[in-house]
Write a structure and sequence with these properties.
Blueprint (H helix, E strand, L loop, with lengths): L1 E7 L5 H10 L4 E3 H11 L1 H11 L4 E2 L2 E2 L1 H9 L2 H24 L5 E5 L14 E6 L2 H12 L3 H9 L3 H8 L2 E4 L5 H14 L1
Parallel strand pairs: 1-5, 1-6, 2-5, 6-7
Antiparallel strand pairs: 3-4
Helix pairs in contact: 2-3, 2-5, 3-5
């Protein structure tokens, strides 16, 4: 079985591509939602994050994402410490999940493929790309917020360019025929 990473910048359309792969019967692991669950319920992660951020991260036993966001937003060292706990746990969770399945390949959808160092663990990678203006529009429609904040988030994803150069497959999602591109990639992965 192959481990396949699906990455791309915010608003590029990773989730759309993931849904198409799911419709083709490919199991897709959403690293963001699994990371959130692991940070809430995995005792080892909870203990490690309390040491890094502080007890206030789990007020009355409940994970406080705003406390996390504020703590790591402007402190790269703290962010690296948190990532060094969460990313390996997400990889192990994905690997265990994948290894229980009898399929030719599984996909992990992750925005932080290169930042996390997880790219080393995958057999293949797919990068979803879209024009910056379109990405901003998508994020505004999905999350609201303001344009400057979204652009700042996009700037904080410098590894997107690396993903474009390193990926085995690139899917352009500028309101183009994404399904056809996914079908082509799907067939090539099965043949590889």
């Amino acid at each position: 079985m192959k481990y396949v990473a699906l990455t791309g910048g915010i608003g590029s359309g990773k989730s759309v591509v993931s849904k198409i792969f799911s419709c083709l019967g490919v199991p897709v692991y959403d690293s963001d939602s699994h990371a959130k669950q692991l940070m809430k319920y995995d005792e080892n992660i909870v203990s490690a994050l309390k040491k890094i951020i502080g007890e206030e991260l789990y007020f009355n036993g409940k994970f406080q994402k705003d406390v996390m966001r504020k703590a790591i937003f402007s402190d790269n060292i703290l962010l690296e410490k948190v990532n060094s706990v969460v990313h390996p746990a997400v990889w192990e969770d994905y690997k265990q999940w994948s290894d229980r399945l009898s399929v030719p390949f599984t996909i992990m959808e992750t925005a932080l493929l290169y930042e996390s160092g997880l790219y080393k663990n995958f057999n293949l990678s797919i990068c979803v790309t879209a024009d910056d203006k379109l990405r901003v529009q998508r994020v505004l429609q999905r999350d609201g917020g303001d344009v400057e904040f979204i652009k700042k988030k996009m700037e904080n994803q410098p590894f997107v360019q690396k993903a474009l150069h390193e990926a085995n497959f690139i899917i352009e999602n500028n309101n183009t025929f994404v399904i056809n591109q996914v079908m082509t990639v799907y067939k090539k992965i099965l043949q590889s």
